[in-house]
Amino acid sequence: MRIVILGSGRGSNAAAILEAAGQNRLGRARVVQIFSDKPGAGILALGPRFGVPAAHLDPGPFKTKFDEAGETRYIESIRTLDPGLVVLAGFMRILKPRFIDAFSRKIINLHPSLLPSFPGLDGIGQAWRRGVKITGCTVHYVTAEVDGGPIIDQSAVRIEESDTLETLEQKIHSAEHALLPSVIARLSAPPSQ
Ligand code: GAR
């Protein structure tokens, strides 16, 4: 199963996926391309490190959405790669129905909270400020409702008295680095008879 990863940030989750692939923990999935909407994003440095094509793709002038030309650029560039799965690994841009429908049921997103709690920006900070005792991370299918698509799997993280926002962030990132590759491996398995 061919995977395309989209990310905007440092790319620790993309690195976890690529490390899992190198250790035969990604099932039948393999990463064929990384795209970033941010020209200097850390995620792009994973390309040469792991021997995977990685490129900046211009999303247009807006901060959190695509303009029409940018959306077309993404759809066509991804479609050419014929992916079985498009993985949003820290991709901080909203996808509209035209994009989602181009890859129906093939786009998954990682979110740093136990959805449906704390959708949107800064899921970790939202949970921390609310004072919940258990939070975590979620992988879900992308639909037009932001962070609202069907949940595929989740991992829970307990917030201890001794935690700070920084230690909580580390715990959630560790949970993400285990969860996302395991979900991809599972989705890559052929349907059972
Ligand atoms: C991850 O924590 C991911 O859950 C979050 O961005 C981070 C990316 O880290 N995504 C969202 O908040 C999406 N709404 P990374 O670049 O190190 O993988």
From TrEMBL:
InterPro entries: Formyl_transf_N, Formyl_transf_N_sf, GART, GART_AS. The active site is at residue 111. One of its GO terms (cellular component) is cytosol. (6R)-10-formyltetrahydrofolate binds at residues 65, 92-95, 109. GO terms for biological process: 'de novo' IMP biosynthetic process. It comes from the Bacteria. Keywords: Purine biosynthesis, Transferase. Belongs to the GART family. This is Phosphoribosylglycinamide formyltransferase. N(1)-(5-phospho-beta-D-ribosyl)glycinamide binds at residues 11-13. The keyword Aminoacyl-tRNA synthetase does not apply. Gene3D superfamilies: Formyl transferase, N-terminal domain. Catalyzes the transfer of a formyl group from 10-formyltetrahydrofolate to 5-phospho-ribosyl-glycinamide (GAR), producing 5-phospho-ribosyl-N-formylglycinamide (FGAR) and tetrahydrofolate. Residues 1-184 form the Formyl transferase N-terminal domain. One of its GO terms (molecular function) is phosphoribosylglycinamide formyltransferase activity. Pathway: Purine metabolism; IMP biosynthesis via de novo pathway; N(2)-formyl-N(1)-(5-phospho-D-ribosyl)glycinamide from N(1)-(5-phospho-D-ribosyl)glycinamide (10-formyl THF route): step 1/1. Pfam families: Formyl_trans_N. The keyword Transferase applies. It catalyses: N(1)-(5-phospho-beta-D-ribosyl)glycinamide + (6R)-10-formyltetrahydrofolate = N(2)-formyl-N(1)-(5-phospho-beta-D-ribosyl)glycinamide + (6S)-5,6,7,8-tetrahydrofolate + H(+).
